[in-house]
UniProtKB/TrEMBL annotation:
Gene3D superfamilies: 3.40.50.10090, Periplasmic binding protein-like II, Porphobilinogen deaminase, C-terminal domain. It is an enzyme of class 2 (transferase). Pfam families: HEM4, Porphobil_deam. This is Hydroxymethylbilane synthase. GO terms for biological process: heme biosynthetic process. Residues 338-539 form the Tetrapyrrole biosynthesis uroporphyrinogen III synthase domain. One of its GO terms (cellular component) is cytoplasm. Residues 3-206 form the Porphobilinogen deaminase N-terminal domain. It comes from the Bacteria. Tetrapolymerization of the monopyrrole PBG into the hydroxymethylbilane pre-uroporphyrinogen in several discrete steps. Its EC number is 2.5.1.61. One of its GO terms (molecular function) is hydroxymethylbilane synthase activity. Belongs to the HMBS family.
Length: 555
């Protein structure tokens, strides 16, 4: 029969729905996958709990009710916990569950216990943070959003050491080969499960969908979700649960305080029936309540925790400002510069075209310094890669707020750092007239601007090259796709080396080119590139200037 399957418009949601479509086609049905337009773009920082309140499920259900589709495919986690059965709709099938595990993707494919001390790990839930903290309390957790590809692209020197994602999401998007380790933590209730819903009156559709039913998956997911419901919790809270089969079905659940210091884990057996599944969930929740779980799960206990660190597994890009916002490609890491443009209503895709490599034979000069000046996050990464400790008895300067924040995460006091975007001039201006030795760990091609400016103020300046930037072997597919299909109004290049990489890796296609300084513009012009605008200062005024140039071009 002819079937129209409704799906959310994200890549991961469409991949999930295509799985279902292929299963139905194998049974002889003619299936069309229909993206359902959402009222708002997916949220990355879910302060308003869009998924938890059921907005995503509601939009798919509206498409069912208005007749534009015959069935919809939900991520089971998008269906509100504890909701009553929809009188006009029915979950016709819960297919065999996909991989429920959480997966670690890391630089050099290091396992969790092998990550360096205070490694930066990207996460999308309190559940992951809390359980991983019990294994590695020293790690630094970073809230990450964006598509799967964008999150994975952040695992590189100077940004993230690793990121934790769901194995099912990686599997569906063809990225499972990047996994360094499947983590020994409990998943969110229903993780990896799909629910197919249709109108209760459409008996032929129900019968067709029922062929995909996996009763054991339905039973397992029901027990896990009922436990969460009876506990009075939702997906934002640090709670995990999993039903698995070891001759009989076993429900295992855990709740962890966000700091990892308190932990309750229990396991019970359960018969294979939907009735007993819900009873098992209720019994488990009661056992947790009797053990005082609400002392660290109650709203009061979590009052100081920012739920904005919650994401679903398939959010859009970090800069969802709507289709009418100007869109810039920024080939560098996330940081203050990208945030500054977003604050001005400019959509930004950050996608580095270079990767840092350690310089052989680098020498540690920091012990002889009065000041240690860090120009970038890459510098901090390189120093850590060498295994060198940053001396805490030295004065420290950082060339921008992102670099300063990374140093502070390592427990270091930063004495000088201009607010906002990185700027050599503003950092030089902060230094008092004086003397003493300033050591600058840096890339081997760092300009002499810092050295010249501080020397003029009376300092003995020593460069300490520790890394070198090289072009990526291959540009990420989503970047090339956007570049070749006119996704971007402009590209902003922030240094001469980044400009050279863009010239090497991206075909020229008439996209507006912006430069962050005159040195970068010079490289571009020498290559025959028309530079539409150059920031006159590397600060908020420069951001305003470039944002205005992009808006003017769009008129």
């Amino acid at each position: 029969m002819k079937l129209r399957l409704g799906t959310r418009g994200t890549d991961l949601a469409k991949a999930r729905t295509n799985q279902v479509a292929e299963g139905l086609r194998a049974l002889g049905h003619d299936v069309e996958v229909v993206p359902v337009t959402t009222a708002e773009p997916d949220a990355n920082h879910m302060d308003d709990g869009l998924s938890f309140r059921g907005q995503f499920a509601a939009e798919l259900r509206q498409a069912l009710r208005d007749g534009s589709v015959d069935a919809v495919v939900h991520s089971t986690k998008d269906i509100p916990i504890g909701e009553q059965r929809q009188p006009d709709l029915v979950i016709a099938a819960v297919p065999l569950r996909d991989d429920w595990r959480d997966a670690l993707v890391s630089r050099n494919r290091l396992r969790l216990r092998a990550l360096p001390r205070q490694a930066r790990v990207g996460v999308t839930s309190l559940r992951r943070i809390a359980q991983i903290r019990r294994i590695r309390p020293d790690l630094t957790f970073v809230d990450v959003g964006g598509t799967m590809a964008e999150r994975l692209a952040r695992v590189q020197p100077g940004d993230l050491d690793a990121v934790v994602l769901s194995a099912s999401a990686l599997q569906r998007t063809g990225m499972i080969d990047q996994v360094a380790e499947f983590l020994d933590i409990l998943p969110a209730p229903g993780q990896g499960a799909k629910s197919i819903e249709c109108r209760a009156a459409d008996r032929d559709v129900m019968e067709a969908l029922a062929a995909l039913e996996d009763l054991e998956t339905r039973i397992c997911v029901a027990a896990e979700r009922d436990f969460l419901f009876r506990l009075g919790a939702d997906y934002r809270m640090p709670v995990g649960a999993l039903v698995s089969r070891r001759s009989i079905l076993n429900l295992k659940a855990a709740a962890t305080s966000v700091d990892g210091s308190r932990y309750i884990q229990l396991e019970i057996g359960m018969p294979t029936s939907l009735l007993h599944a819900k009873r098992a969930g209720e019994r488990m929740a009661q056992a947790f309540l009797e053990r005082g779980v609400m002392e660290f799960l109650s709203p009061e206990a979590l009052a100081d925790v920012r739920f904005s660190a919650q994401h679903d597994e398939e959010t859009g890009t970090l800069d969802e400002l709507g289709p009418d916002a100007p869109h810039i490609l920024l080939p560098r890491q996330e940081g203050r510069l990208s945030s500054s443009f977003r604050e001005r209503g400019i959509s930004i895709d950050t996608a580095p075209l270079q990767i840092a490599t350690i310089l052989d034979g680098a020498t540690n000069l920091m012990d002889d310094a009065d000041w240690v000046l860090f120009p970038s996050a890459h510098t901090i990464w390189a120093v850590r890669e060498f295994g060198w400790e940053i001396p805490k008895d030295k004065k420290i300067a950082a060339m921008g707020s992102t670099t300063r924040e990374l140093l502070e995460e390592l427990g270091l006091e930063v004495h000088l750092s201009p607010e906002g975007t990185a700027s050599s001039k503003r950092l030089i201006d902060l230094f008092p007239e004086g003397s003493g030795r300033v050591v600058i760990p840096c890339a081997d091609d760092l300009s002499t601007r810092l050295q010249d400016g501080l020397s003029a103020k009376g300092y003995d300046v020593q460069r300490m090259p520790v890394y070198h930037m090289v072009d990526l072997e291959e540009v990420a597919g989503w970047v090339l796709d956007g570049w070749e299909n006119a996704r971007y109004d402009a590209i902003l290049l922030t240094s001469p080396s980044v400009a050279r990489s863009a010239l090497n890796l991206l075909p020229r296609n008439g996209t507006m080119v912006l430069a962050w300084d005159e040195d970068t513009a010079k490289v571009l012009r020498e290559a025959g590139v028309d530079v539409a605008a150059v920031a006159s200062t590397k600060d908020d005024s420069g951001v305003d200037q470039l944002a205005a140039a992009v808006r003017e071009r769009r008129k």
